[in-house]
Amino acid sequence: MTSLWRASRARLAAIGSSLIVFSATAVAAQGASSALQVKAAVKVAPDSVRIGDPFRVTIGIRAPSGATIDFPRALDSTGAVQSLDPVNVRTSADTSAVEQYADYRVAAWDVGAQGIRFDDIIVKLGSVTRRVPVTGATIFVKSVLPPDSAKRVPKPPRDLFEVNPFPWWLWALLAAVIIGLILLWWWLKRRRRKAQPIPAIDPFKQAEADFERIERLALLEAGERGRYVTLVIEVLRDYLAARHTRAALSLTSTELQRVARELPTVPESRLGRALTDADQIKFARRAVSTDRARDLGREARAIVAVEHAATPPEAPITTPTPPTTPTPTSPAEAA
Length: 335
What we know:
CATH topology of the largest domain: Immunoglobulin-like
Number of domains: 2
Shape: elongated
Number of strands: 12
Distance between the termini: 163 Å
Radius of gyration: 53 Å
Helix content: 25-40%
Strand content: 15-25%
């Protein structure tokens, strides 16, 4: 047994002069009376390469018989040295212990001395688990660039945006502004030319025309009594809003009745009854007969007529006539 153990130790020592042997701290096994003894070694061949050239890293682990060894599948992908192929694990024929070797084909992607980083190797024996860190492995990466013999000094970088005394984009912007101002002047001039004075519409004539248009729709004959009442009340409110600025369309029926008390030309009581009946038909869905709907239409027209008759007519605008000079009839009068 002692001779086999010495032979295994000699085999690990013969890996080469570049063999880096490191010791791993034993982790106390749960429920185990003694520590799990593990020997590990790592070899890098060759010890110096050029950037991008493949080389091999070999890790050897010797553990007691019956143990299992879990090697990392690849190197840390965030380092300068990265794996090219998956790990190749081979097992020694020694029966006195478990001895395995992991071969990694890797390449370095940065120049200079680069550390080779591995995840911990996990060795298990029954319920005992030990993590073996792999540290100290390095590779020197040579540059593939020839030495700079010309001693040339590069020029400083140019500015991203060059500032010239008269940049072309400034002239283009100025031309665009001038064209825009010309187009704006032409549009305003054309708009003023086309603008026509809006003739003033008499609110009473407009209301009478709207009442006639509603009657031509024949809503009562079609059975749409609620819609008929809604339309005639809207015409009534439009007329009052045109006559009196205080009777705005945004007012509710109650607010309009309150405003009508202060308008001497508006029959407040008749207006209140018409608005109340219309609100119950529109919002409370109260049934209304054809005769009652026709009566509300007549009442709306009557309120408009009463208000129009009570409103004093507007005084006509007269233009003062300039004084005339009498024409002389004889030279003496002219003198």
